[in-house]
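hey can u check if this looks right to u? its 92 residues, i copy pasted from the old doc so theres a chance i mangled smth
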Amino acid sequence: MSESFETRFPQYLSSPLQVFWFEADELAIVLIAFMIGSIFKGWFWLLLIIGPFFYTRYKLKYPRGFLKHSLFLSGLKDFEGYPTRFQKEFLE
């Protein structure tokens, strides 16, 4: 009685999570623009096009993962499984 377990692995382990052609941080910009557009109506719907366009152009200037590191350095987000930035000694 052997059961076969199928586990799917991504083709590229270092590739970021993508939904359609948006990465996760770009998708957050799209969702925020959608919420602002649905609340304020009118010309704010242009944020759905303008917001992700300018964010992706801005993002190309920096290495991958700069947003997470910026949030970490500002103290808004912690990395899971890593020591805090105030810890002087770390043993694996």
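The longest strand covers residues 18-19.
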